[in-house]
Amino acid sequence: MQAVINFLRGLFSKEEGQTLAEYALILVLIAIAVIAAVTLLGGQIEAVFNAITAALGIGG
pLDDT 10s per residue in the chain (60 long)? Predict the structure, then answer.
């Protein structure tokens, strides 16, 4: 466990670690945006897929 902590400390103490942290932050922000979009548009997305499955005749 100590080796993992030392590795992470080493990453964040170097420039490469700062870049890694920035990429991780961007990834988290994108994930939050995707979750928010799916939450807000979930009903509309479901309606589109239901219409597609009905048109294809594979709905149950």
Answer: 888 787 777 766 666 667 888 899 999 999 999 999 999 999 999 999 999 999 998 865
The residue type of 43 is G
What pTM did the predictor assign?
0.52
Residue tagged 């170097």 (tokens): 14
Identity at 47, one-letter amino acid code: A
Asked if residues 12 and 18 have their Cβ atoms less than 8 Å apart, the reply is: yes
**18 CB contacts (<8 Å, ≥6 apart)?**
12
Q: What angle, 0 to 180 degrees and rounded to 10, lies between the N-to-C axes of helices 2-13 and 15-56?
A: 100
Sign of torsion over alpha carbons 18, 19, 21, 22: positive
